[in-house]
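Extended Data, panel c. Modelled sequence:
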Amino acid sequence: MISIDAKKHLWYYSGLLIVSLLALSLLWMTAYDGALQMAVIVLMSLFCVVWGLLHHFMHHDLHIKIVLEYILIGALGISIVFFILG
């Protein structure tokens, strides 16, 4: 059963899932070029940061702590992939 909160944000989660699946397919299609894969990872990370910040902004709970959290998690994801692919 889907919780009330999840139903309320169904479009948000659906859009995020679609873009994530698109990014994964782009990673698979660019398997021949590590630099291109890294660009896809950076773009996906930036998208997730902006998507999350916009979500919090629309719900009036955007604070500097949340901004820093999203930026640091995005940077951590990029760093992990960089060290794996590099």
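Helices lie at 4-8, 10-29, 34-58, 64-85. This feature is highlighted in the accompanying rendering.
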